[in-house]
Fold Bifunctional diguanylate cyclase/phosphodiesterase.
Amino acid sequence: HTLARDLRGAVGGGELRLFLQPLIDVETETRTGYEALLRWEHPTRGLIGPDMFIPLAEETGLIVPIGEWVIRNAFAQAAQWSGGQSIAINLSPVQLDSPNLLPTIVNALAETGLDPALVEFEITESVLLHNSDANIQMLNRLHDLGLKIALDDFGTGYASLNYLLTFPFDKIKIDRSFISDLENREESRAIVGAVIELANKLGMCTLAEGVEEAGQLAKLREHGCRMVQGWLFGQAMPSEHYQPVPARSA
Ligand code: G
Ligand code: G
Ligand code: MN
Ligand code: NA
């Protein structure tokens, strides 16, 4: 597989890029941080999205050095921002199983001096399928370091509600499939409303993904959704595009 061979060289070859997508507070409509979304700038094929190479990276184990690159770079960038802007980072189940993860995070925190409260790790329901003690323990350790944990793409996998009690989630990210027909479908509104109410009662933040229209934002606000993300506010773009204000040096 030629893509696999190329991927092996991508990390050392400096071909990985971190794009940023703004995360927006519904009440103030201001940006509170960004999600880091990985891209591969392939020398001949051009820009490749994560859906095209993350599965391959997971199969080959390359996700561990790739994920390490993501963490180190995302932390380094976020440490340069002012105003307490946060950074959300996607974690693969394979990374969560790796003994490499915790030392990578601890070292990256020490090297950058980044406030752990500004870091959020996103995991999908597929992680919960294992529901292994080791995974629960790892997420608890990250949480104990002061890092935040978000449940990504909520509603699309096989999460059972007891996972919300088992894992230390700070936030639920409602999958964009529920947002796209929010205005036309009573049923979608019912589900989104119920998820937000549940999260609120459990003390978890809610973020709606894939918000593209003002009408969707209005409905989400009515339901008390706390945060949104989507093309209405900005696509995933190279960091220069958003020109996050650098922190003033003391
Ligand atoms: O922009 P979009 O095509 O960027 O991302 C598609 C999916 O790829 C996201 O839902 C996310 O789960 C995954 N993804 C993006 N960046 C990363 C990353 O750095 N690590 C992992 N493991 N997954 C990522
Ligand atoms: O980690 P996750 O699967 O949630 O990554 C978010 C994915 O959704 C990325 O592929 C990103 O590019 C995509 N995305 C972000 N905002 C929007 C949006 O408003 N509409 C659509 N269709 N996709 C979006
Ligand atoms: Mn995500
Ligand atoms: Na998602």
Observations:
- Residues 63-78 form the longest helix (16 residues).
- Residues 23-37+63-240 form a domain with the TIM Barrel fold (CATH 3.20.20.450).
- The beta strands are 16-25, 30-42, 46-48, 86-90, 119-124, 148-154, 171-174, 205-208, 227-228, 237-238.
